Please model this.
Amino acid sequence: MSVNAAFRIDMMTQQDIPDLREIVTAWVRKDGRPIADEIERTMAILRAAAKGNGDVYLVARDADGKPVGVMGCGSPDDRFLPFRSSPEARAAGLKTAFLSPDIRGRGLGKQLLEALFAGAREAGWTEMLWSSNPRYRTTAWSFYTILAGDPVGILEDFFEPGSRTPVWRKDL
Model:
């Protein structure tokens, strides 16, 4: 599916994993240093999705086909279930959302997330739930609020003990 002349969005493949590691490593940091164990957990999630575990993962590519962003969803962590719109709602959980720092601000994040919403809807989910690590408070939280509206609640201790993070919900 085409996004614009400079980027396109399509399904993630195994071949994308090395380039996606660079993007994940650019964001998963504390005090300017990569957080190795969290990067490895994220990469394991990406590898499992690329092997076809039922999750929906999309990659944004530049004009040369190189990945510049990734977003994916699948069955949500059980701690998100109380935030569904109803007990019958079939909710997906946003699991991964990273863009190359060099392309931020061009609208690609919005296009990639909207494409993921469409892919989740096609896969049979009726809504999407997610939170975002407190380290992304200044880069992601307002972005998610613009796209999904005000958070529907607060998730306690999800990212680490003592963390309080907003939960967003988007009808698909």
About this structure: The longest helix spans residues 36-50.
